[in-house]
Amino acid sequence: MIKSFKTKLLLWTGLLFALILIIIGSLVYFTLDEYLYSRVDNRLSAECRELSKVVRFRDGAIALSDSSEWTEVEHAEVGQHAIYLRISTTEGHFLGASKNEEHLTFDIPYMPLAAGELRLTTQKLDSLLFRRADLHVPASARSEAVIITSLMHIGEMDEFLTFIRRAFFLLTPLFILLGLVGIHFLSQRVFRPIARITETAQLMLSSGELGHNIASDNTDEEIRQLIDTLNSLFSKLKRTTEQIRAFSANASHELRTPLTVIRGHVEVALSRERTVEEYKQALELILNESQSMTRIIENLLQLARMDRRKQDLQMELLHLDRLLLSLKEELEKKGREADIALSFAVDIRAEIAGNRDALKLLIFNLVENAIKYNKKGGRVHVSLSQYDSGYKLSVEDTGIGINKEDLQSIFERFYRVESSRSRQAGGSGLGLSIVQWIAAEHKAEIKVDSVPDEGTRIDVIFPVVEYE
């Protein structure tokens, strides 16, 4: 079985080209054959009918009411354009003939016909090819029944058709060969960019570098679009790979930091006898760090569930305002630890269909992001308000802000804004990606407004519950 697409293309195109040539050649040949024979047949038939109008046969005597039929040039000359005429009885007995008939070196064979029948045939007589027409003229009041035969030599016409036929059989293979050669060179040109694509992909696999681009110069529009798409894909893969590498380093750091702090507090607490109050403070610090580490692990688990599409959020009717206020104390504590002032404005009752745990994660990620990327002594304002036909949860900070060119990428997984203060803030780059997924599961809309060095505002707009 042929596996090469190029070979298949060459084979099938060659077969199609050959089939088209055969069909066109056959149509031309048979059309020409029909046209030439119909011209001869029409001429011979016309001669028979014209003669039938003037012939008179009675009591064994033949006569013509118009003798000019015998004296026409084509009935006197011999050769390719001559027409030979013969009149015979219905039994085949000779009655009369045109002047040129006497030059024939053979007898025209008798052909019995039905009354009124016109028969057209091709016969080889004395090694010469003739086309003949035989017309049976029925008996009438003026004449007895006779058979009129007209004969024309068609040797030149047959030779011409034979030449056309031979030329077709000789030239068709040549045209097919030329077509295959042309198709081969065309396929080489078409597949050259594909070979470059394969070469670049193999180079990436062998080197592990995704920064190679495929040249798209002097290529057709369709191939150029494919190359541009692949180059974009390679660039995105490179960026994603770099983000994953950065995430691995950040995640390791994020997990190692609380573990280091926990270990430090434990070692300090165990280094000597402590008071109950000192042990309590150490345990509180350990609890805070373990909660921070738990949050990181939850984000990682949530990401894994999103990837596997196994997360099926169970929705219930809940009050978003109550859920938000239930998290207020814990969020304010996180703000105080980072020297960030948190304020809340919840003035409405907001009943929505949602998943409690997922919404908690959404709120925590939004507020933690606002705290993490804020300035020392900054503020974070969390509000819940009516918005058109829904409810708007807003988290606004006075932090470092986001550049306009980075806004479209902040929800991409592992993405972190490339700035010195952003890098110092740490983080895995997963928070907003998870926020976007949770919002989508709740059919909520996210809007982001940010000014560098002034702050960022993120709005999550939830739809109201529709009762049937």
TrEMBL record:
It is an enzyme of class 2 (transferase). The chain crosses the membrane at residues 9-32, 167-186. Its main location: membrane. Its EC number is 2.7.13.3. One of its GO terms (molecular function) is phosphorelay sensor kinase activity. The keyword Magnesium does not apply. One of its GO terms (cellular component) is plasma membrane. Residues 303-330 form a coiled coil. It comes from the Bacteria. This is histidine kinase.
